Every structure is written in C-alpha cells, then in structure tokens.
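Input (structure):
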C-alpha cells in the first residue's frame, strides 16, 4: 500500500470545485445565508454548473471563494 506524507502534498491537493454545503461549512454559515450573500454581494463568486440540465450540480471555485473571503477580512 502506497502512503503519502500530507505535509509534502498539502498545497497540491486543494479541491478545485466545492459543493454549496462545503462552502457553507468553510465559511461557517447556513445555506440560506449563502443564498442571501450571493444575491446581495456582487463580488461573491458565481456558481458553476456541471452541465446544461436543470438538475446539474452546482459548484463554487475553491480559489475564488478563498479570494473573496480574504477581501472580506481586509474590509473589516
């Protein structure tokens, strides 16, 4: 069995797409609060759909969420 050192690969294993629930967990907010932020704040990252169907999954770009959060902390 191959093992990996988490410290060596920590920065390389960041997820690229996050589900809505994961974004809420990272930001410490509810799904309803996320919806309110996305409607009220033009700078909040727009969600990405994984397909053209109405039921296609919705994801957020990990890097965009980090950058938005960083800007919010700077504005405090």
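Output (sequence):
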């Amino acid at each position: 069995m191959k093992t990996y050192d988490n410290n060596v690969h920590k920065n390389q294993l960041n997820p690229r797409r996050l589900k809505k629930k994961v974004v809420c967990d990272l930001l410490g907010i509810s799904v309803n609060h996320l919806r309110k932020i996305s409607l009220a704040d033009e700078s909040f990252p727009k969600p990405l759909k994984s397909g053209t169907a109405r039921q296609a999954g919705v994801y957020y770009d990990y890097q965009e969420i980090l950058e938005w959060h960083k800007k919010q902390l700077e504005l405090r």
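Notes: Residues 14 and 62 are 8 Å apart (CA to CA). The longest helix spans residues 62-75.
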